[in-house]
Write a structure and sequence with these properties.
InterPro entries: Glyco_trans_2-like (IPR001173), Nucleotide-diphossugar_trans (IPR029044)
Strand content: 15-25%
Family: Belongs to the glycosyltransferase 2 family.
Transmembrane segments: 298-315
CATH class of the largest domain: Alpha Beta
Number of strands: 14
Pfam families: Glycos_transf_2
GO molecular function, one term: glycosyltransferase activity
């Protein structure tokens, strides 16, 4: 089994991006893009509109094939025309002091390491340059509502031993509807789902979850130092569950900031919008592999039951005449090398 990513050390601050040191404690926002520059631009627009705590934005492009980097840089050049270009970097730096976004950077990765791998690359890149205490990790298909970051900072700061802190996700087309508050996981089946009900207590924080949904995650540098980065071996799905569980075993508590809200398109990068019947083969593959992998890692006594439950998945896919997906699940069940590393 692949070991966990090693904890990240303190920021090195080895490169001069001509940014004042007083801004080094700005929250670093890392966004992963893969063939989705239009969604990424919408996400960046929403972050640029936020008031409140200072932020640095780092877009990690996972080797897109749709000219994403060129499109993003072209848009940033127009949108941030009055900002200064970072020397030796694909980045723009605000010329005035204050709150909100202080700089925007585009990091081009040579290969696609998956969602966790892209976030890890952005975190490492940022910590080599700045002494950020806080990190906000985002899908590119989200739009932040006003006050989203302020609510995360407040909720995390008010909760003892706060671990990974999530946001309340809203439906993209119907933002008055809640898409997810937090994740609930049934270990004996290897199945997780999104709780859509806000708690009745009406507070600022909810601890009634197993993991925050990975589209928006807020962590501190201390968490990174003690727990480590996300595990990139998952590639897609379950990475936030793994991260939260590793933190829990070190005494950290996952939580949700109930007043941090983001609209989420869901499934934009994986081609899986519209529920289980529209799930792509890519999503099916990693959903099955990681269901078995995370069980084996944390709750191995449930592995035989979780493995047997996949027969019901095959039955469901066959009943709905989804033969390619049924065949894929069967092949993965009988290929333990796919999920035992």
């Amino acid at each position: 089994m692949q070991p966990y990513p090693r904890p990240v050390g303190p920021a090195l601050a080895t490169r001069d991006l001509a940014v004042d040191r007083e801004h080094d404690l700005a929250t670093c926002v890392v966004i992963v893009n893969w063939n989705g520059w239009r969604d990424t631009i919408a996400c960046l627009e929403s972050l640029l509109a936020l008031d409140g705590p200072p932020m640095r934005l780092v877009v990690c492009d996972n080797a897109s094939t749709d000219a994403s980097v060129a499109e993003l840089e072209r848009w940033l050049q127009r949108r941030l025309a009055s900002w200064r270009r970072a020397q030796g970097e694909s980045g723009w730096i605000a010329t005035s002091s204050g709150e909100g976004v202080r700089s925007v950077h585009v990091l081009r990765l040579p290969t696609n390491p998956g969602y966790a791998g892209g976030l890890n690359a952005g975190i490492r890149w940022a910590r080599e340059r700045w002494a950020s205490r806080n990190f906000w990790l985002l899908n590119n298909d989200v739009i932040a509502e006003p006050g989203a970051l302020e609510a995360l900072v407040a909720a995390h700061g008010a909760t003892p031993r706060a671990g990974v802190c999530g946001s309340v996700l809203l439906e993209w087309d119907e933002p008055e509807r809640i898409q997810a508050v937090g994740g609930i996981y049934r270990r004996w089946l290897g199945v997780g789902w999104h709780d859509k009900e806000l708690p009745q207590h009406g507070g600022d924080v909810s601890l009634a979850l197993d993991y925050p949904v990975g589209a928006s995650m807020f962590v501190t540098a201390q968490y990174l130092d003690e727990v480590g980065l996300m595990d990139p071996s998952y590639f897609l799905y379950c990475e936030e569950m793994d991260w939260a569980e590793r933190g829990r075993r070190r005494g950290y508590r996952p939580l949700v900031a109930l007043h941090s809200r983001l609209r989420h398109k869901e499934g934009a990068s994986t081609g899986s919008r519209g529920g289980v019947r529209n799930k792509s083969l890519l999503s099916e593959r990693y959903g099955i592999i990681n269901r078995l992998r995370i069980t084996r890692r944390f709750w191995p006594w449930y592995l035989p039951l979780v493995w047997a439950s996949l027969l019901l998945v095959i039955l469901d896919r066959s009943w709905n005449r989804e033969w390619a997906r049924a065949t894929l699940v069967l092949r993965l069940m009988t290929s333990p090398r796919q999920w035992m590393n």
